[in-house]
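Human: If only I could read backbone structure tokens as easily as an amino acid sequence. Take your time, and here it is.
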Amino acid sequence: MQIMECAKIAQLANGTIIGQRPYPSISSITIDSRQVEPGALFVALAGQAQDGHDFILEAFGQGATAALVASRHAHRIKARLGDQPKILIVVDDPLKALQRMAAAYVQMHNGIKKIGITGSCGKTTTKEMLASILSLVGKTAKTPGNMNSEIGLPISMFEIQNDTEFGIFEMGVDHVGEMDRMLNIWRPEVALITNIGLSHVGKMGSTQVIAKEKSKVFHPDVEEAFMIENSAWTPYIQKVRNIEARAYGMVGTKGLGRIVSLGLHGWQISYNGVLIHLHAVGKHNLMDAIAAISVAQVMGATTSQIADGLEQFSAVPGRSRIINGSVTVIEDWYNSSVDSTNTILDYMATLPWQGRKLAVLGSMKELGVATEDAHVHVAHKLLAANLDDVYLYGKEMEKAWMEMRKMGFTKNVFFTDDYDELQKRMITDTHKGDLILLKGSRAMAMERLIPVLTSIA
């Protein structure tokens, strides 16, 4: 974030400043008092379990320059601060004010080429690959990490600077109406949907509702719309949005030649006669790269810029990244859905490996009424993958375990809902030369196993 005057932030938020002049400058924005750095604006949001207004003293103690607070809490907070010379920016609703700030900030930077990426999975990897390419074309701003919600997106907007030429931002939605609020902030000229799957179906209700909500990214003013080729949802989305989407993929993306799997070393892609070594495993990452190529083409990237950008890409932690050692780990712990689990298990099944292949799968969350069927489906996929050992963790995975036992797969499958028990079992069962897939929904915190597995000699 480029440094901004506190008064300017208040103006963008349509807020009132309480505090003494001279007003300090803001150098970062956060909603988590634990992540406050000196110079930060702390935005006090009311959550389901906690209210940020209760952590303002902690935020100032960490070095926050100012706090964005709701008017109904301002008097109480000012009383708690006493004579401390702290700055409060008082607004009607901090979340709405944050979104208002971001929208106004974007309006100050009209010359940017705006790109929006949504989908059930693959958003972050596609964004990182595309940013790696476009950063060679011009100054590029992107979503930090995966800050892609109606809270994360407005904070991400402040990555834009005066000399930014390209903005690549994820637009993740998990409830109806969220995309509308995002489009009020970031209205992409080029929009891409990676896929439509079951992620967040528990909140949305059905995949059709998911498709309809995500497809709002193809707003009436969008100039280029991209969808993966052969998507079953393309006809529906094109009809409901009255738009002709470009199909990207092995066939639809121009310039693609022979593609060769390099196993754990990724892929070799022939593009316009140039060989590209993509350091990312699995077909899902390959398709993300092809999506990035497709968007980069319309953004004017040359063949060499596309090749160099993809060569420079390195896998994001927790998203199919390879950790080499005595035990080789495919860490895919950031999130989990039926679609992403299918893809990575297909990859495991076909991957040449001299040692044992193991899968450690945590529960898939936010699937609502589809939870049982989804975990039963994973059980069948695991059987087809023909792995040596399977470890299932979390109460939802009990359904997969029961299904596997019912089908006769009993000797090499372990289930527990207790993390300590899982860890002890992995320490006992894992041996030098094993290949281990570690996957689960974010709530399962599967990354806790990484130091355990990588310490095995």
Observations:
- The chain has a mean pLDDT of 94.
- The domain at 109-312 is CATH 3.40.1190.10 (UDP-N-acetylmuramoyl-L-alanine:D-glutamate ligase).
